[in-house]
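Justification of computing resources. Each target in the renewal requires a structure prediction run like the one illustrated here; the chain below, 382 residues long, is used simply to show the kind of job we budget for.
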Amino acid sequence: MKNDKPARNAGSENSLENCLTLLHVTGAGPTTFHKLLEAFGSINAALNASHQQLSSLAINADTISSLRDHKQIDIDADLNWQAEDGHHIITLFDERYPEQLKDLNDAPPVLYVRGDPDYLLQPQLAMVGSRNPSAAGRNTAKEFARHLSEVGITITSGLASGIDGASHEGALHGLAGTIAVVAHGLDIVYPAQHQKLAQQISENGAVVSEMAIGTEPLRNLFPRRNRLISALSLGTLVVEAAQKSGSLITARFALEQNREVFAIPGSIHNPMARGCHQLIRQGAKLVESAEDILEDLRLTPEQNPLYPIKTETNIHENPKDPHKTLDPDHQKLLKCLAYEPASIDELVVSSDFNAAEVASMLLIMELEGIILCQGGRYTRVS
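Resulting structure tokens:
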């Protein structure tokens, strides 16, 4: 992991300190930040503008007051955080700032990075989906992420429960690592159960936020986070999503940013597949394998020197496939699941085995990792 921090230069017109100060001005979000920069040419000039100059820009009165009193703004929490190993604060003027974000009208003035900032410059694919996916959906996310990472695509997601977490986990088993974009300050980890995962990502990728240290994960900040996930990436893959889902917000941002949108179809009986089906009807590209994505992105060796390593491998193929070791009765019962969750009673009807036989075979397949039980219903893992 790298920790090459640029030298601090408080005298620079657009120094880190000046950028952080403006970032902490009351009401000075990215839009106001860029308006001030365009009007005055530098952050230092904006911080020292007169009341009359600021009023002419139709800026909020509280923001003007905060700007005029900017010397009272405390940025020590940010600077102290950056002083720790593996912590970086990258401004819009830093050469490490991702070019793909600069196209945004509200490009983040500052990025906080825990891990290696170089990952932000790698070819990326966003992977998003339900916080409560099916077992099959979670497994699909892991396998797609692992395979894509193995061929040099860094996986970018939002560290949320469900598909996000599974995507990060899968990517960590590949070569190209993973990026987690979060909606809060990097002094905390949210959700709390992803403490270990966040640490692993910082060691094999980066955790990134545009939010200042100390910012809590408020609901309105997550859509802002989503625009960065899509903007950093060449495309967005939706694995499972309900029709009203934050994942669809990410997909919409991707379309607005002229990025590709991919969706994995599912069962018509699975409510978590309806968002993907809606995207496909609206023109998203239907995906059945990682190769579908790689072929569409058409990365050149210069963009991605690892591609096309292992691209001939289908993610659904497993040389140690446990299914092939099952006896005929277990194979028959497994076919009855047909990737749809089912109860023991339903399997008794569809398989012609009695309840005791079904329960016994299900237990064996669950121990083998072939199926999972969720809420009393069984589903195939792969």
